[in-house]
Amino acid sequence: MELSGYRELWRTRGVPGLLASSLLARLPVLATMVPVAFLAKDLSGSFRWAGVVAAAYSIGMAIAGPLWSRTADRRGARGVLLLTGLSWSVALLLVAAVPAGLYRLLPVLTFLAGGLVPPVMQTLRAAWPRVVQGPALRTAYSVDATAQELLFIVGPMLGATAVSVASPRLGVLLAASMSAVFIWWYALRQPRPLPRDADGPPPLTARQLLWHRHRLPLILSFGLWIMAFSGISLGIVAFADEHGNRLIAGIMEAVWAFGSLVGGAVAGALPGRRTSYLWRRTALVTAGMLLCVFATWSPVSLAVALTVSGLTLAPAIGALYERLGALTPDTVRTEVFGWMGSAAMGGSAIGSAVAGAVVESFGVRYVWLVATALAALSLVLLLRIPPEQSTADLSASGLRGEVA
């Protein structure tokens, strides 16, 4: 192990502020869903209606994410972030102000709010190659993936705390106020885009961007990973219910996330290799999920297996971010991460639905077997993705001919 990547990253001008502001800007995005779901349930008296509202919010995000990301590539990330950050805050205020008698308006308002979610994650992942290079770039993507795991714990917990201490309306208002402040700060920290050649080819169309022998497998693989992760989360809930103690679910999710945090931190300190193929890390993810298939006989054994499995997640996700960024021209890099987000939203919805059917029909253990199969399928898709170091020449020359 070596720490040169971390040292170079933290010494680079603008990196600490960009990373800190991005973490705070992502926090209200992840803290919103819990109070919105509880608000829908309280106003309608039905968890089914809460599910409808949550689905409307997710659909809005999935549709608008690539559009905002493409606009950020064309017109600059700062203006898009400021516009969507303010608009999203206003939309959340409208959601929080809905009276009980008009709860049927919630799907429309949450669809609107989902469509206005600022492209924070997309712009950050597109910005890293403009700020750092070499080992520090690998470390930046690894830190990004690791921090995302932490935010997935802190964000929903913050929303749930606001609901428990005060009310769902206050939770939504808290997210709106955080958005207005933190996303504004993050927008001001955006690096300047790379200079563009006025005589160069126009930006890729959506079809040209997606229908690519490397980018399409990367995006599809990420969707398969999220499908597997969502299924596992539901499997954890079912496992806890089988053992008669719902607290087990929270513990299992925590140890899984802890393993990912440790794995990401270690991966950021590992020296890069010329033959750093993404499929190798995907193979470790697959093996970790397969391990859990044989560990469902007790809570302790499953917790140990989830910790080991978690060690593989953040390193693989960070490597996938890096590969996708390196294999995409700077003029459309934000957009490609927007499409990745849409794939994640679709994978999450499908994964939860499939996992529920698997638990009912076969049992909890088979959720991890399905997740293993999904990870193995992504492994096949990633076999022909070029290694990290060997794509330097491709990034310099091959990308120029993609419009043809």
The number of E-state strands comes to 0
**What's the N-to-C terminus distance?**
42 Å
As residue ranges, the low-confidence spans are 390-404
Structure classification? mainly alpha
Count of helical segments?
18
Helix share bin? over 70%
Helix and strand succession?
Answer: HHHHHHHHHHHHHHHHHH
Shape: globular
Biggest sheet overview? none
- What is the percentage of strand-forming residues? under 5%
Mean pLDDT: 82
Radius of gyration using CA atoms only: 21 Å
- Quaternary state of this entry equals single chain
Report on this structure:
The chain is an all-alpha fold. It is 76% helix and 0% strand. The chain has 18 helices and no strands. It has helices spanning 4-11, 15-31, 33-44, 47-75, 77-96, 106-115, 120-131, 135-165, 168-188, 206-210, 215-242, 247-269, 278-293, 299-310, 313-326, 333-361, 365-381, 392-396. It is globular and about 55 Å long. The relative contact order is 0.15. Mean pLDDT is 82; it is low at 390-404.
Briefly say what this structure is.
With 404 residues, this protein is mostly helical.
